[in-house]
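Help needed: design a sequence for this.
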């Protein structure tokens, strides 16, 4: 089979060579697409470029070619792709079909384009070259966002601060800060009074009564003060007081009234009416 295939290929090769001889010398593709104004020739040159691209794309799939050869092949493929675009523009300008707008993009789809480097693509083994693989590494996906129900699952009274006073740490700290703030405010007030030239009373001195009592009112106040000193109320005299506006009977008066009522009932029961 291999010998027959070799013979067939040899025959095919001879036939193609004979056809080329009959058709004359092979026409060379112009360097610039704008130099060709014949639409059929532009179509032929475009097909030649496509065949060259297909051949080089098949070659670059072999990772054993070496880094330098793979880079050269990738550069040649990108160069041919640019040249193909130029010929397609020339064809559309001559009234031919718009390949860039309606034609298939099978060659562009085989390459991967680096983000931020528009136009240059990597094919086959070129995508795994050192320095190129890192360009295509994607960022890790962001962590999934929690739903409102999942967030509210861990919220309790402690989240809103209702249990801050139960640990026995917050209240002493607040009292300490409150005393410091009070001392600072008093100190500022004393400094302000001193700057204004006012007299600052000492803390140990009692303020003089600007409305002194005299006569019976003074005696009543002193009497009430002495009674409070003899019988101090630990609750601060907060117990309720009741004032009786009618005479309240004692226990003995109640017993006498019940006895008198019982006597009347017996008299009414055993006595005869006149």
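Sure. Designed sequence:
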């Amino acid at each position: 089979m291999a010998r027959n295939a070799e013979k067939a290929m040899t025959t095919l090769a001879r036939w193609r060579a004979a056809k080329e001889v009959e058709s004359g010398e092979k026409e060379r593709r112009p360097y610039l697409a704008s130099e060709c104004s014949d639409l059929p020739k532009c179509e032929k040159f475009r097909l030649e470029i496509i065949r060259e691209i297909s051949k080089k794309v098949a070659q670059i799939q072999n990772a054993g070619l070496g880094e330098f050869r793979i880079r050269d092949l990738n550069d040649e493929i990108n160069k041919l792709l640019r040249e193909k675009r130029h010929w397609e523009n020339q064809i559309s300008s001559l009234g031919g079909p718009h390949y860039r707008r309606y034609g298939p993009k099978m060659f562009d789809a085989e390459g991967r384009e680096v983000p931020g480097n528009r136009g240059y693509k990597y094919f086959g083994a070129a995508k795994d070259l050192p320095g190129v693989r890192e360009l295509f590494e994607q960022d890790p996906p962001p962590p999934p966002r929690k739903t409102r129900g999942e967030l509210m699952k861990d919220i309790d009274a402690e989240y809103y601060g209702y249990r801050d006073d139960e640990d026995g740490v917050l209240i002493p700290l607040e009292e300490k800060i409150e005393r410091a703030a009070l001392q600072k405010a008093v100190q500022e007030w004393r400094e302000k009074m001193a700057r204004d030239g006012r007299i600052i009373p000492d803390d140990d001195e009692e303020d003089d009564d600007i409305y002194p009592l005299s006569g019976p009112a003074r005696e009543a106040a002193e009497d009430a003060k002495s009674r409070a000193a003899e019988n101090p109320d630990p609750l601060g005299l907060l117990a309720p007081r009741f004032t009786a506006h009618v005479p309240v009977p004692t226990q003995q008066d109640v017993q006498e009234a019940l006895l008198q009522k019982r006597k009347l009932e017996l008299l009414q029961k055993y006595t005869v009416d006149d």
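The first helix runs from residue 2 to 23.
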